[in-house]
UniProtKB/TrEMBL annotation:
Subcellular locations according to the entry: Cell membrane; Membrane
Membrane-protein topology: Multi-pass membrane protein
Main location: membrane
G-protein coupled receptors family 1 profile domain span: 45-297
Protein species of origin: Nannospalax galili (Northern Israeli blind subterranean mole rat)
Superkingdom as given in the UniProt entry: Eukaryota
Alphabetical UniProt keywords: Cell membrane, G-protein coupled receptor, Membrane, Olfaction, Receptor, Sensory transduction, Transducer, Transmembrane, Transmembrane helix
Annotated family: Belongs to the G-protein coupled receptor 1 family.
DNA-binding is among the record's keywords: no
Stated name of the protein: Olfactory receptor
Membrane spanning residue stretches: 28-52, 64-86, 106-124, 144-167, 201-225, 246-267, 279-299
GO molecular function terms listed in the Swiss-Prot or TrEMBL record: G protein-coupled receptor activity; olfactory receptor activity
C-alpha cells in the first residue's frame, strides 16, 4: 500500500516515488534476485573486459578500444538504474529525490545515446577491417578513433541537455508517484501540471533520428560486409568473418529491439499494451545489453577469452598462461 504522503504535493515535490512494475508486485522477489544476478554479471564482465584490454598491449586495435569504451558505458547504464530497481523490488523503497531523479534520467538517456553511436563505430570498424584490410591502420588511426568517440559523446550531450532542461522546468504540483522502475522521462513528464507533449515529442523525434540514422548506416555497413564475405575464396576466412559479424549483430539486436519496442509501445500502444509490459520492456532495455555484451564478446572473441582466462588464473592461482 502506498503512503498518503506520496499522493499529492504542493509545489515541486521534494521526492518522487517509483512504484516498480505495476501489476507484478507478486514477482518482486524473483525480479530482485534476477536483476541482482544480471547487474553483478554486468559489473564483473565489463570490468574484466576493460581490465584485459587496458593491460594487454596486443589488444590495442581499434575494435578492442571501442569495446573497452562500450564496456565503460554499459557499466554507467546499468549502474544508473539497477541498484535502485533492486531496492524497489527487495524492500519497497521507491523514494528518490527530485534532483536524483533528473540526474538518473540524464545518465540513462545519455548513455543509451552514446551506446548506439559506439555500435555504429564498431560496425564501421568491421567494415574497414573486412572490406579494406590493407588500409585499416591508415583509416582508423588513434586520432580518428578519439575523434569518433568524442563526437559520439558530444552528440549524446547535445541531444539530452535540452530535454533535461525542458523536463526540469515543468511545474509539478500533483501526484509524485511514478508508475515506473526508474525515472523514465515520459513517465515523469506525465506528472507535470503543464502539457508534457513538447518534451515528449522532442524525445521521440530526436531518438528516432539518432537511432534511425545509426541503424541505417549499420545496416549498410553489414550489407557491404556480407557481400565481401561471400566473395572470399577461402571457406575458413568466410566462416571467421561471418562468425565475428554474427556476434556483433547479436549485440545490436539485443540493444535495438527492446529499446525501439519500449519507445514506440509507450507512444502508440499505451491503451493496448499492459503497463507492466511497457515498464518491463524499458527495464530490460537497460539491463540486458550490459549483461550480455561481455558474455558475447568474451566467448566469441578468442583473444579476449584467452586474456581473461590468463588473468583469472594469475589472480586466483598465481599462474600465467603465457603460452596461449
Amino acid at each position: 500500500m502506498l503512503s498518503p504522503s506520496y499522493n499529492h504535493t504542493v509545489g515541486p515535490p521534494a521526492t518522487f516515488f517509483l512504484v516498480g512494475i505495476p501489476g507484478l508486485q507478486s514477482s518482486y522477489l524473483w525480479l530482485a534476485i534476477s536483476l541482482s544476478a544480471m547487474y553483478t554479471t554486468a559489473l564483473l564482465g565489463n570490468t574484466l573486459i576493460m581490465t584485459v584490454i587496458c593491460m594487454d598491449s596486443t589488444l590495442q586495435e581499434p575494435m578492442y578500444c571501442f569495446l573497452c569504451v562500450l564496456a565503460a558505458v554499459d557499466i554507467v547504464m546499468a549502474s544508473s538504474v539497477a541498484p535502485k530497481m533492486v531496492s524497489i523490488f527487495s524492500s519497497g523503497d521507491g523514494s528518490i529525490s527530485f534532483n536524483a531523479c533528473f540526474t538518473q534520467m540524464y545518465f540513462v538517456h545519455t548513455s543509451t545515446a552514446v551506446e548506439t553511436g559506439l555500435l555504429l563505430a564498431m560496425a564501421f570498424d568491421r567494415y574497414v577491417a573486412i572490406c579494406k584490410p590493407l588500409h585499416y591502420t591508415r583509416i582508423l588511426t588513434p586520432h580518428v578513433m578519439l575523434g569518433m568517440c568524442v563526437t559520439i559523446i558530444i552528440r549524446a550531450i547535445i541531444f539530452m541537455t535540452p530535454l533535461s532542461w525542458m523536463l526540469g522546468h515543468l511545474p509539478f504540483c500533483g501526484s509524485n508517484v511514478v508508475p515506473h522502475s526508474y525515472c523514465e522521462h515520459m513517465a515523469v513528464a506525465k506528472l507535470s501540471c503543464a502539457d508534457p507533449m513538447p518534451s515528449s515529442l522532442y524525445s521521440l523525434i530526436f531518438s528516432s533520428i539518432i537511432v534511425g540514422s545509426d541503424v541505417a548506416f549499420i545496416a549498410a555497413s553489414y550489407t557491404l560486409i556480407l557481400r565481401e564475405v561471400f566473395s572470399l575464396s577461402s571457406k575458413n576466412a568466410q566462416q571467421k568473418a561471418f562468425s565475428t559479424c554474427c556476434s556483433h549483430v547479436g549485440v545490436m539486436a539485443l540493444y535495438y529491439l527492446p529499446g525501439m519496442a519500449s519507445i514506440y509501445v509507450a507512444w502508440l500502444g499505451q491503451d493496448s499494451v499492459p503497463s507492466h509490459t511497457q515498464v518491463l520492456l524499458a527495464d530490460l532495455y537497460l539491463v540486458i545489453p550490459p549483461t550480455s555484451n561481455p558474455i558475447i564478446y568474451g566467448i566469441r572473441t578468442k583473444q579476449i577469452r584467452e586474456r581473461i582466462w590468463s588473468l583469472l588464473m594469475h589472480v586466483f592461482f598465481g599462474q600465467s598462461n603465457q603460452g596461449s
